[in-house]
Amino acid sequence: MPQHGSQSKKVVTFVKSGSKKKKITKADRLRQIQEEEEKRQKEEEEARVKYEKEEMERLEIQRIENEKLQKLEAKDLERRNEELEELYLLEACFPEAEKLKRDDRFLSQWKHYIQCDGSPDPSIAQEMNTFITLWKEEANETLEEVIEKSKLVLNLIEKLKLILLETPPYDLQRKNIIQYQGSILELQELLHLKFNRATEILLRQASTLADLDSGNMEKVIQDENVTLYIWANLKKNPRHRSIRFSETQTGFEIPRMLATSDIALRLLHTHYDHVTPLSPVLTPSQEHVSLVTDFVKEEVKSVQTAVSKDLQEENKQQENESNSVHEEETKAEEQGDVEEQTCPVQEEPETTKYEMEMKLLSQTVSAAQELLLENACEKPYFLEEDEVDLCQFTTLGGVYHLDILELPPQCKPMKGWMIVEILKEGLQKYTYPPETTEDLETENVFPPIEVMLEVHENVIFFENPMVARWDAEGKHWKTDGISNVSYKSEERLITFNLETFCPVTLIQDAHINMPFQSWELIPLDVNKVLLTVTTVFTELQIQIKENLCMLASIKVNNKKHSSILEEKWMTPVSFIIALKNAGLNIFPTGHSHLYVVINYKHPSVEVKAYRQMALLSSAFAFCWSKWNTVCDSKKTIFQVREHLLKEESIQNPNWTLLMFSGDRAQSLKINESSDAFSEALKEETEFHSTLYHMVKDFASQEAMREVRRSNCQFVDSVCHMLLSTRLLSYS
């Protein structure tokens, strides 16, 4: 019983403890909700007031900033005409440089005329036709004689190509383009024909030149422009199937059928490419031509009007002055006065004519520069299967002309004379494999020929080269019919199997060094700069002075690489051709954007940027910026700093980040290490209409004097190199 009582007591205690807890009434709950609501409203009100205060402050700051920007924009607009006029005067160096180029072209023609060395002027059709006709008539030339003559022929071809490339597109007439390209093709065809005829003359004497050990003839002729390998199969030994030319790695592995045939093998390695069709000449569209033509007409009309007004004013002035002459003056004095008064009348039109000429030339140069940056909308032609796209790839190291030739009848000595049978049809090619192979398994009976070629020492391949063969019927390079390609980079030896002999070449991606990783343009001396372009594989340093360029150094995979082009000064166009031929292509074409992911910039903006960078390059250094890829296509961003020659090299130079849209330049608040992009204007800086006036704000007077003293040819050459590399779009 006591235990039962104690248990009931516990239960009572539990109930009592529960009864002590306050029960929340409905009124309390409503009051609590009301308090929480009031608190929430109070917090919201405080947040609203704070937000409104912050927003007002922000709007006030923004208003002040907008007012400041509006004032700066108004100030920029107010002085825009003045700045553009000053820039126009500075940019007079471009038409002046073009005028000097024209004078140089005329001077070179005159120098050639007075030299009287017997060589034709490539720009004169009559002289070229006479030269070609006379050389065609020359017979029985040896290979050595043809090789010697080829130096003149190659020089003429190079001159014609330079005329087409260096002459501004608006100065080239269609008939001249057809004439020059026709002369180039005729010279190329005739040169190859001469090599064939000289080869036939040599092969007629093969038996007299046979090697004592093998009994076959082998000959190698090396020159700066060509290397010729000839092997004549005189013994027809079926076991002699491996051919190696002495002191070279070049050779062939021929099938049994050829080893027992009356044939000769010829490898003519031309260090130039006369097989690939000529590149189309850059010509302006009809729209561009009409724009320039309209401008010319307007300028001529305005100048003629101005001249006629000036003449009328001068005549009135003469009449007024002649009326005021005293009657007592002598006739001689009157005539003297008239002569003095008429002198300015004769000089004024001449001055105006020169100004008009330079203005028109300036417009032509600007249009030609913009034409260099035009992007093609699509590929120029449809590609067949296995055809090499010459917009994407480029041939390097020349062309290897591989031929299997029928051995001509050999010379026979008879009573002190050498009797030779001359075939009317001339040198004939041996067809391999034969055209009629219906009942035979071609792969087994006519296996491919193994070819071993030495790669030209002055050409750089950043990846293993590809081999292409010439399709004579389709007139293009193809990659079919070639197998088992292997390349030994250290030995510079490439081996492959070829189904049939034909011209072959090595190809590389033309855009392997694009886009660029970085670039820098730094002054070196008076009218001399260093342009450094860094790519994935290489770093090129190019010096530019006056109207010349030079490859200063080259690194391949961060290692110094020697090149035959180093320390050789050339004109910009010749220099660009030389770099391309060496495999160092950093020069985009109008089709390059179809194969490379680029940071497209509008051509008019690019042209203005490059022109003004060139103007400032004698005293200011320029460098790439990562923010250039962030801004839109109508703006460019790069770094700039003053760089005078007396200054020592700075370890951490203080670069200024500029944004330029073609019509406005400004300093940016951000720098290269900022986390986010912003177009905010740098404190205590202003807007300007040109780069020249932008850098003038922070530049020294000495730097600006250096800029104004720049040589016009130097500025033009720097601009040409910037236009050719398109650093702002391809970095």
TrEMBL record:
It comes from Odocoileus virginianus (White-tailed deer). Residues 1-49, 306-348 are annotated as: Disordered. Residues 39-239 form the IC97/Casc1 N-terminal domain. InterPro entries: CASC1_C, IC97/Casc1_N, IC97/Dnai7-like. Pfam families: Casc1_C (PF12366), Casc1_N (PF15927). This is Dynein axonemal intermediate chain 7. Residues 475-642 form the CASC1 C-terminal domain. Residues 25-49, 310-334 have a biased composition (Basic and acidic residues). PANTHER family: DYNEIN AXONEMAL INTERMEDIATE CHAIN 7, LUNG ADENOMA SUSCEPTIBILITY 1-RELATED. Residues 8-17 have a biased composition (Low complexity). Belongs to the DNAI7 family.
